[in-house]
Amino acid sequence: MAQNAEPSSKKPYKSQTYFSFGAGLSVLQGVPDNFYQDGHGNIQIGFMKEMPINRRLSFLTGLELERTTYNLDFFPVLDESNNTLIQAPDGIKYSRIYQNSFNLSAQARLYFKDNNSKEKPNIFLQTGFRGGYNLSSTYSFRENNENQSINLSELANPFNLQAELMLGFKGNYFKKLEILNASSFGMTYQFNPLLTAGNVENIKPIHLTWRFLF
Known about the structure:
By secondary structure, the protein is mostly beta strands. The protein has a single domain (16-213), classed as Porin. The chain is 0% helix and 62% strand. The protein has strands at 16-29, 37-52, 57-72, 74-77, 84-87, 93-111, 122-143, 146-151, 159-170, 182-190, 204-213. Strands 1-2-3-6-7-9-10-11 form an 8-stranded antiparallel β-barrel. A two-stranded antiparallel ribbon has the order 4-5. The radius of gyration is 21 Å and the shape is elongated.
């Protein structure tokens, strides 16, 4: 009762650290018409820290490892003077890119109702930026009944800058799964291109992700 009597400018609770898990689908913009693309996906795991500013607003920071998979019918031609991508030759199957990245995020969370406690049900809008460092990029394919791979680090952007917008729920909405603190769904747009090769430098991913905080 004493906590509820405090002015709205007071922090409702101390900073909290959550385990974060997310997964979803990805869409690629700017893919040349001569490249066939199939489903793409993303998965993240890490930690997020919520720092309440007042009863309606919190600041969040996050550390995440992310793995993205892009299914594209192409083949890399790596040359010292000119790296490019061509249509996959006959015999190349299941071609895809695997990317692993380390992401740092800074976001603001706006609650629709007064956020008096960690347990109180609430709806929030969350937005901010993520910066990612590309740990590895691998082109994987199957040829002559053998799985093969090519390192694409030379073709991948080393850093990614993304903007995120999510709608979420927290608190006792999840009575049947009490360890779950919050769940959110939204979109992440990447400003810089996925690859640097001249004929694919306009490919940019958009991630649709469902994230869970425990």
